[in-house]
Automatic annotation (TrEMBL):
It comes from the Bacteria. SUPFAM superfamilies: Ligand-binding domain in the NO signalling and Golgi transport. Residues 109-171 form the 4-vinyl reductase 4VR domain. The lineage of its organism: Bacteria, Pseudomonadati, Thermodesulfobacteriota, Desulfobaccia, Desulfobaccales. This is 4-vinyl reductase 4VR.
Amino acid sequence: MPGANHLFFHWESLGDLEIGRPNLGMMAPVLVYRLMLYTMRTVLTARFGLAETKRIFVAAGRLAGEEFCRHLLNTQLEFDKFLTELQEKLVEHKIGILRVEELDIDTWDMTLTVAEDLDCSGLPVTNETVCDYDEGFLGGILKAYTGNDFRVEEIDCWAKGDRVCRFKVNLIQAN
């Protein structure tokens, strides 16, 4: 649609931060990120309900994960080296500290944890998982790397009283 291209995300939509933020730089406080995230969640939930809001956040996270992988990670690496690079990039960009607890490379089933998670570490306990965006983000990264679709489900979360976010990852469709 002519004139509406700015409405669709492209990596270039992020702009040139070195030119645009010569004094403030690339990083913003987690407080500012969460202010945007949780007010958006509140508005979307009021308008569309909790289930649809979760779907929206997972879909947005998936798109972000695919783009993050395509632009910041080497998809030509063997999986163990890819995971190492992913861990380094997540720390470098202050997203979280990724650990692989379980991995069955034959089935692509895995359990991942993220400590100091950008979305939730330090939140009050509400007895619910809140890292819907992270579910999509991790699934998007894995899709961009493998070409396959994954189901990522958060099973432990700081908001449930845990000290890491734990995600079960399962291959749902191999291409």
